Amino acid sequence: MTMPITADDNTQRSRNIIRNLKHLEGPMLPILHALQAEFGHVPDEVKPVIADELNLSRAEVHGVITFYPDFRHHPGGRHVLKICRAEACQSMGSDDLADRVRQLLGIDFHQTTADGSVTLEPVYCLGLCACAPAAMLDGDVYGRVDEHCLSEIVGEIGL
Amino acid sequence: MTVTLFVPRDAASLALGAEKVASAIAAEIAGRGLDARIVRNGSRGMFWLEPLVEIRTDHGRVAYGPVKAGDVKSLFDAGFLTGADHPLCMGLTKDIPFLRQQTRLTFSRCGVTDPLSIEDYRHYQGLRGLEKAISLTQAEIVQEVTDSGLRGRGGAGFPTGIKWKTVMEAAGPQKYIVCNADEGDSATFADRMIMEGDPFVLIEGMAIAGIATGATKGYIYTRSEYPHAIASMGKAIEIARAAGILSSSVLGSKHSFDMEVRSGAGAYVCGEETALLNSLEGKRGVVRAKPPLPALKGFLGRPTVVNNVISLASIPVIMDRGAPFYRDFGMGRSRGTIPIQIAGNVKYGGLYETAFGLTLGEIVDHIGGGTATGRPVKAVQVGGPLGAYFPRALFDTPFDYEAFAARDGLIGHAGITVFDDTADLMKQARFAMEFCAIESCAKCTPCRIGSTRGVETVDRIARGIEPEKNKALLADLCNTMKFGSLCALGGFTPYPVMSAMTHFPEDFAPVPMVEAAE
Question: Which Gene3D superfamilies does the protein's record reference (chain A) (predicted)?
Fold first, then answer.
């Protein structure tokens, strides 16, 4: 609590987001997506706010957040690179691609580079299975990812 | 006269550079002062040709592909706006053999129209099914769907008409149509292509389902990995509302229907219908025990139809052309058409909609053209990560729910992943167990613990530790998972594992120590 003003600010921002969405049937996931879009992750201090607004226990809120791989508990990198690790991409050499990406970025999956530029994540299918191997940088998709494409992706990250 | 060009906006086309191609074309049109407009269509599903640019001519649409941004100038120099020849010219799109041989019923408009043009949609027979449904009673609509023989295209193959009948007859002040668009199986992209390439057909199918069952609210639950599909569905819903398709009076009728898109959050198990319903309600995506059936106690405990995208997107053509028309395609108890998705290490990968009954060999060798790497096909996995690996010896299996089941496999959502002879099927079996361990909702023990024990057992076989004993143990574990799991994740993971062990025993043989040490 070294920065109480920021925490209060987060609380108010999150309360506004939640109040805009709580009228939905099953509002939890839309709320969590919106909070993550706002903060880059789902901060711990918003859990009691969600619990309060939706009349749930903190444990229930925590249980939902931790079930889903999408929801981050800490800030991620400025970019998020997802490499597909599912079968169709495996058949086109995605295991080698994954090794190459780890080597290029100097991090493993679920890690963020020291400069905070990129977080590397596995993904199990992007639906680009007929142009494998596939990757996604933020919202942009890449198919038949080869060395040339990879250097383009790394260029986008700005390493 | 304004020339019309088509540059797809399907995610796979974008992944192969369609956006840069569209920009380059727009720049050439402006720079040369030409009278042309670009339509961003869906994909035709021929991904080796993407980005596939088409020009509308007096003779039909002429295809050019695969087009890179660097090719655009030479295409204009060759006069491609008139359909002129060029090394990338594929001739008339409709004459490309991969497309010509298909029976496109569900995907009839995909890649043809502007996905967000309601005028295009109407022009290509859209909304006729909904108009027909409005003229019928609920029971008549359900009977038509039942008579069509349509079975759930998500993988389970349950008769759609029977599910609808249960919901129609269920009492309740509020019923729901939930579209399962959580297409997480590797090798599948049919749902994504419909949502991006012809979203109105899904809206129309859901509206018909709503009228048939008395449900007035629909949800499409899709994946966060599909941002393009989420965006196009969201826009299409807004357009459909403005056009009176989604309203308190659907197309001026007494029926009310509206819908929303919801995004999952990266959990594969939410493709299982009861886990999906929990997730939609905002809970952990944990599987529910059945009964009660979702048809009776589904979303928020109310009667709910849960259907796959392709099942719902096939409804409009069934209503428009009639049940007999649809039922006359196919074989045995597998009626109608199925969009086969040919993926992985394959030369001609893409979406191939055809009547049930083609053999696996015809699909892989003749339509798919063998592997992309040019090496021999070793194995194909049919039905996603929970589907069996088939060897060449079983390539005579016809594409039919029962025929695949008889050979210890499944069609699933009709995705096929091709592997060449460099594939190691023990590694694939290990991955199947690993994937189950990562994605298990952890509610039932066989899936939660069995998958982890499965990975360990495969690792022991790989290290040559009591291989025969461990292979027997793995088979026993698979048996427990198959019969003791609550849902298809734990229950079907044994399919890839057992098929790999049964059909590719050489990959499970102990390796010489020298190689093992590497």
Answer: Glutaredoxin, NADH-quinone oxidoreductase subunit E
Domain ranges for chain B, please list them: 3-100, 118-327, 333-420, 425-516
Determine, for residues B225 and A136 on separate chains, whether the beta-carbon distance falls below 8 Å.
yes
CATH of A79-157, one of 3.40.50.300, 2.60.120.200, 2.40.10.480, 3.40.30.10: 3.40.30.10
User: By the CB < 8 Å criterion, does A80 face chain B?
Assistant: no
Q: Give the model's pLDDT for residue B42.
A: 98
- What is the model's pTM? 0.96
- Smallest Cβ–Cβ distance between B184 and the set A54, A91, A125 belongs to A125
Is it the case that residue B515 has pLDDT exceeding 80? no
Closest A-chain CA to B283: A64
Contacts of A104 (CB under 8 A, 6+ apart): A150, A154, A159
| Beta-sheet strand order (sheet of B89-92) | B36-39, B3-6, B53-57, B60-64, B89-92
| Residue B374 zone, left/alpha/beta (φ > 0; ψ -120 to 50; rest) | left
Backbone angles phi, psi at B504, to 5 degrees: -130, 55
Total beta-carbon pairs less than 8 A apart between chain A and chain B: 158
Which superfamily does B118-327 belong to?
NADH-ubiquinone oxidoreductase 51kDa subunit (3.40.50.11540)
Residue B104: in which H helix or E strand, if any?
A: none
Kindly report the CATH class assigned to B3-100.
alpha beta
User: Which residues of chain B make contact with A136, given a CB cutoff of 8 A?
Assistant: 225
| Coil vs helix vs strand at B399 | coil
Q: Which residues, 6 or more positions from B116, have their beta carbon under 8 angstroms from its beta carbon? A: B199, B232, B235, B236, B239
Confidence class for position B513, pLDDT limits 50, 70, 90: low
CATH topology of domain B333-420: Ubiquitin-like (UB roll) (3.10.20)
Partners of A124 on chain B (C-beta within 8 Å) are 184, 186, 268, 385, 435, 438-439
Domain boundaries, chain A: 4-67, 79-157
- Nearest CB to B350; choose among A71, A130, A132: A130
Average pLDDT, chain B: 97
SS3 sequence of B88-103 = CEEEEHHHCHHHHCCC
Q: Do B262 and A30 touch (CB under 8 A)?
A: yes
For B52-104, the pLDDT digits (tens) are 999 999 999 999 999 999 999 999 999 999 999 999 999 999 999 999 999 99
Q: A142 vs B15: CB contact, 8 Å cut-off?
A: yes
The C-alpha of B226 sits at a distance from chain A's nearest C-alpha, in angstroms, of 7
* Fold for the domain defined by B425-516: de novo design (two linked rop proteins) (1.20.1440)
